[in-house]
Amino acid sequence: MISVKPLRRKDLTRCAELERILFAGDDPWSEAAFESELDWGNRYFGAYSGEQLIGYAGLSLVGRAPDFEGTVNTLGVDPEWQGRGVGTLLLRALLGVADDVNAPVYLEVRTDNAAAIGLYEAHGFHQIGLRRKYYQPSGADAYTMARPARRPAEEASTP
């Protein structure tokens, strides 16, 4: 069984390990980078199989109520667990945070990552731009994608 909960600081070493595996051709985040993200108050979730971290995702919110905007900072899943819905669970956790404050959400994704693009499109994201040579040092391009703000379910159903 997979559980999703706030990322634990004791798992930051594992996050950095997964980054090196997942983003070897680019500039993977270090343990210190993840620690800084948590220190800034950004929302990070971990996906766990028992006690083992198998995926992570982070969201930052900027602005003030009622004008928040969200950015998916990262989403990574252990290659052994890809294709099993872990990314979906993590993305839904992030979107739940954004939906609680009715924030639109933005992200960048490699143009050659069809699985991630499909995941994002299935959750209401659409392409709004192209960033050439966004990922370094590989020089890979990225799509900028956006999902409009959505009210929490309980507010949306209120007349």
Automatic annotation (TrEMBL):
Keyword Acyltransferase carried by entry: yes
Domain annotation N-acetyltransferase: ranges: 2-150
Classification via CDD domains: NAT_SF (cd04301)
Alphabetized SUPFAM superfamilies for the sequence: Acyl-CoA N-acyltransferases (Nat)
Keywords (A to Z) from UniProt: Acyltransferase, Cytoplasm, Transferase
InterPro entries named in the record: AcTrfase_RimI/Ard1, Acyl_CoA_acyltransferase, GNAT_dom, YpeA/RimI_acetyltransf
Chain segments annotated as transmembrane: none
GO MF annotations, alphabetized: N-acetyltransferase activity
Family affiliation: Belongs to the acetyltransferase family. RimI subfamily.
NCBIfam families hit by this protein: rimI
Protein name: Ribosomal-protein-alanine N-acetyltransferase
Provenance organism: Herbihabitans rhizosphaerae
